[in-house]
Amino acid sequence: MTADPAKKPSVLFVCVHNAGRSQMAAAFLTSLSRGAIEVRSAGSQPAEAVNPAAVKAMAEVGIDMSAEVPKILTTEAVKESDVVITMGCGDECPYFPGKRYEDWVLEDPAGQGIDAVRPIRDEIHTRIEALVTELLPARHVDAQ
Fold first, then answer.
1. Residue 3 placed within a domain
2. What is the span of the domain harbouring residue 38?
3. Which Gene3D superfamilies does this entry report, sorted A to Z (predicted)?
């Protein structure tokens, strides 16, 4: 089976609880790529719900994450992704040769208030803008 050159790039964001960082990253990438990138997020030990401070912080920038739920990390999700970005899950993410792996060191928003979550959100936004530019070089992130 040969790879389809027209296939959308796919990115998986992984953190332990899939309740804050990975959810914000997935929401930003979904929004900024306008559907041109397949986006997944998961956690090695998913929380019961998405962090309310993360939901509120994203709402402040016009992105609604209120319907999102933490998802369990599966080997299938890793296999199906071109880029796997981990955020503090250590060695719990399965490794497959040929995948691009990145580890983004970001403060964990768990248990923190909105004032502590905003800078984390903004750092994720900056990294996602760079990722979109890299994965979709013909597109402009700020193009309307």
1. no
2. 10-135
3. 3.40.50.2300
